[in-house]
Write a structure and sequence with these properties.
The first copy, chain A, is globular and about 60 Å long. Chain A has one domain: TIM Barrel. Chain A has an eight-stranded parallel beta barrel, surrounded by six helices. A two-stranded antiparallel ribbon of chain A has the order 5-7. The first copy, chain A, has 324 residues and is α/β, with parallel strands linked by helices. Chain A has eleven helices and ten strands. The interface between A and D is medium-sized, with 32 and 33 residues.
Chain lengths: 324, 324, 324, 324
């Protein structure tokens, strides 16, 4: 890259963070505009915005001014189609009123995205799916779950939409589970303005090789954004980027370069017990070092080894670029 | 069994249930004494009590009276050594003040248990462990994590204590992770009044066969209580008992009978999207049907097949007892 | 169904079975025509035939006569594109000569299938993929891996081809890994005479719900055959059908009925330590009992509960049909 | 370390390697004495010897001479208690004759170890366990499985024995499954001359943190040998060391240094599609670079961060030592 990579992050990184055990939260609640300061302090260039935010009197315009003043972008608007109202599904709910509410919230989110200059509206359908065998009719689930999104995308043809897929959590089975399942879904939705956000951690615990599916999604023309974090391959732990799977993170960043992706990369962390600013800074420092490794890689030698599927030759090349 | 099995449940089954996404909770908050009514309505005979409960003016005595009036037992007191204060560990915290707080809360819990006639004090050390490679010195972690529990147990020699082990969550690595790890820990703690609560679901996702480790824990004289639920072997989904792994639940109940365990069995469910009363009733109905299957099993034929490790013969016996 | 379901099986079920530890094999080698007798004795109606078979002087015609005499069908021909020659890939090999060999073997298999009246030619590309991060260029891997199969399918437009997908083994990463990945691949191959064989066990350890993807594959018009077995969700253990995941096997058979699939179901077992005939008979007995449960299910009540995503109501219906 | 670390390897690394699909083997069979040459060429200092080896006329004495001439050690003798005869268990078999055969083979192995100067006799009880729920009586399984090893160990009090534990494969459930299960088993066996071989890959896919259990096993005085390789946390892929989990391999080597283990480290690889000599050399080169990283680590700074469980501070220290 001619210029230095930018990094962005989710607002949730700096939030209170609650789970089912520490129901008093891992931190004190944090005001939205304070989160802007945190993001700035962390060195980020933009934030992924959960909508609605808790402060009812904070207008999109005012929020945008604060971002502008801090030099931060509104990366995307992420409607909270996973809160209590949507606990049994948003677009795929069995309840027509809930489906309508999801649709309305999506419409509002488009409006907010336009007001704030966000690049896309992101759906994270973490409640859309089921939990038990036999619980749903799969054809029906798809009809509503995909149809609702089709309808929103068709009603806002100038807006870019993206799905962030995930194997599970909070539901045990999700409709947008893997990269390939999401591409099949997108083909069924059948609109041009719907793509995917790939999250390195989601991909890892969906048993994918993140670099491989990044290449696939990009090749199909559906890549909208890229998120980074790490985990132990079994759950969405949202640990700092590069903290566990260094080699696969490196291959992921190599693929980012190979496909010519020059946009900012987003961090999706849940620093339950760490300072969020530190967690972001640690992640960015590691990622920048890994991007420098990628820049040092002898692409010609690597391609030659890859054309023979020569794993041993490849390892020497990687090791020389990566390990001190 | 000469008399019908009793079932108990955790208070949390009937609670609001929050997670990191639906931070407004899956349900409205539920008052402690209303939970007693729910448990009664579900047909339970007792409850596992998280301490402290939210109502500051509710005394143990008053709580106990309400339980007595409903004909319910106080199964155990479970101090909340997993809330914000203990987010980086309770007994194993690196902070001496937090370790002291855990100790004090344990002392209080013993007192409450005595007032309420609870059979044991249960520790669920879900924040005791670590998240990242290199984060802790393992010897030091064990010294504090086991030493703190030893101290409590020695100070209350007439109280029965139990650990509910779990592979992970909320931390990615826990000190009391599996049945065998817990037995090794207990040997190191070195007191007689400390045992284990086995949770079928925790065991399943720790890659154990629950029936096998139930037999092991009982054989070592450390079985204090038994919990039931189900999941997809990768996470503590806390689904209704018998909803997924019917054969392994049957083998678990067969082992319960084989070791002569006549106490109540406890339900550990998180019915995020279902009525808690229904989830408990469904679980109990399934479990009672499975216990009837166990009673129908030809133990002599089964033992004969097992003595030859004859999996095919065993399957016929199980199928005949289980499937309509 | 008006008539009783037929069951078929893979020839390998009755074979010697070797692995990397018991390199002397779990059994004595078994002659191909003896396997026909075994399959007959097991009550099967047809076999999946690995090609080439070990006896060089056994002609397809002679083999077919033996099958006819036993009243068995040749279900499909499965070319051994996973033996030593193809250890680093068949159609996706980096070696043009190996790719040519795979193509030739496929041509031969079509010829044998025609001679023996087999319904389809099955590819199980277990060596097509990679093992290490950075080992291959994914675009190149797809180009060869999908292109080779396209070429075969186009050269034999009257032959039905099918891929049996699998997450991994023997390679750690496979090109035809999941149902959705395979549907994406098929779309890229772009021919009409290529479909999928879904294996319940492969689906389970690919973290899919087998019933859900069966419905999906059928809905996309790509279902060619169905295989059954069981495992612990983490590996292709090839245990007897219904031995572990009874509820999910029941839902799978319910879906088989729902989509109107009246063809035979195939068994894919590796009875390392059991008599193959017993393993098949045990599986079929269990499956027939489960099919009878499906027939007893109150479809109207089930659909009503499913239309509300009512997991608790569904469980009662399933329990009543399934458990004695 | 004052002197350079030595590396050893399993004989199987250089063998034919067969699995259930490529039954013609991934390579040509390799003669035992040729494997000695391969090991020498790879730069190893010793080999782990499967017994019996295929050449019936090769005496231990002659084998030993060849090793001596090559300057290689006989690390240990590993009796093949996992071949066809023991397919349903060795010491834990339900068949008294098989148990006797395992005992006899163990006796022979002690004799061969003495003749060849091997440091220990290693049991890898990969067939000792079960496959299905209800298949065995667990108490009985333990009685035979542990009793047989106790008997061997007591009969050869001057010989060091070690168990290499593994979660599964070839059986789906093993008696010596995890580090903690093995320590519990060893306590029940009750002899002093029985310890453990920890394999980094086995530990990883048993859901352990290898560094943590290495520390535990050493702390209990039961560490006999250490093996290295890598995998994807779900199966014993036996990939080259450091190829996937670099950070956890580094923490493992850090722990090796911390406990003062100066013995050779052993490689346990299955290079199905790679040159074994290359796979070993690549592994050793990576491991030596990682050991140099460990030597560069600021132990005082690391300990200070660990004493506060400060994951973010730790990551900076590790990154500086590891990444170029």
């Amino acid at each position: 890259m001619s210029t230095e990579r930018k990094y962005t992050g989710g607002m949730w990184v700096y939030g209170q963070i609650i789970d089912r055990y520490a129901t008093d939260g891992y931190n004190e609640p944090r005001a939205t505009l304070d989160i802007v300061k945190d993001a700035k302090e962390s060195g980020l260039s933009g934030i992924d915005i959960n909508y609605p935010w808790p402060e009812k009197d904070l207008t999109p315009k005012e929020f945008k001014s604060t971002l502008d003043a801090a030099g931060l972008d509104a990366v995307c608007i992420t409607p909270s189609i996973y809160s209590r109202k949507y606990r049994s599904g948003s677009f795929s709910s069995s309840d027509a009123q809930v489906r309508k509410a999801a649709n309305d919230l999506a419409d509002e989110s488009v409006d907010v995205a336009n007001q704030m200059g966000a690049k896309y509206v992101k759906f994270w359908p973490g409640q859309d799916g089921y939990d038990y065998p036999f619980q749903v009719d799969y054809t029906e689930l798809r009809k509503h779950g995909l149809g609702g999104i089709r309808s929103v995308a068709q009603n806002h043809p100038k807006t870019q939409f993206a799905i962030e897929y995930k194997l599970k959590e909070p539901r045990t089975r999700l409709l947008w589970s893997t990269a390939n399942a999401s591409l099949i879904n997108i083909a069924e939705v059948g609109v041009d303005n719907l793509g995917l956000v790939i999250d390195f951690g989601h991909s890892l615990f969906a048993k994918e090789n993140p670099a491989e599916v990044l290449s696939l999604i990009h090749g199909q023309g559906r890549l909208v954004d890229i998120e980074l974090c790490d985990n132990y391959r079994e759950w969405d732990d949202d640990l700092t980027a590069g903290s566990i799977h260094l080699v696969e993170t490196l291959e992921f960043l190599y693929t980012v370069k190979k496909i010519g992706w020059e946009s900012a990369l987003k961090l999706d962390l849940f620093p339950y017990r760490e300072s969020p600013v530190s967690a972001v800074k640690e992640s960015v420092t590691t990622l920048r070092k890994l991007e420098a490794c990628v820049d040092r890689l002898d692409f010609a030698a690597l391609n030659a080894a890859q054309s023979k599927h020569d794993a041993m030759a490849v390892q020497g090349i990687i090791r020389d670029a990566l390990i001190k």
